[in-house]
Amino acid sequence: MKNSDYDLEERTARFGEAVIEFCLNLPTNPVTAPIINQLVRAGTSVGANYCEADDAESKKDFRHKIALCRKESRETKYWLRMIAKAAPAQKAVARKLWSEAKELHLIFVAIVRTTDRNLRAAAQAATSASDIRH
Q1: pTM of the full structure
Q2: pLDDT tens digits for the chain (134 residues)?
Q3: CATH superfamily assigned to domain 8-133
Q4: Angle, alpha carbons 94-100-105 (nearest 5°)
Q5: How do the domains of the chain map onto residue ranges?
């Protein structure tokens, strides 16, 4: 059985659900409404893009989709910061979500770096192999 802390599909889904629940409890006014919209879009996109990465058609496709996860988790941090300013009473909950968004962002940064290193190594190996044949 997988530990859900290490199951990124489950973890990102739980994060998206937490963002939705948080946003449903926010006061809606002309300032918070567009922030809430952006926060829901970014916060739920992390998991959606992870599912896409998990079903990637190539290593380059995987790298691209994981980079989107990295981008969306970083954007989520931004919108959480903005909502904490627009709805100060919700700052404590926003801070907890921000911490999870930060952890996810760091995980995706590491995955992108590792994937880039592996893609470079594969390209070098392919170049070396073609040099030997010629």
Answers
A1: 0.88
A2: 456 668 999 999 999 999 999 999 999 999 999 999 999 999 999 999 999 999 999 999 999 999 999 999 999 999 999 999 999 999 999 999 999 999 999 999 999 999 999 988 988 887 776 666 65
A3: 23S rRNA-intervening sequence (1.20.1440.60)
A4: 120
A5: 8-133
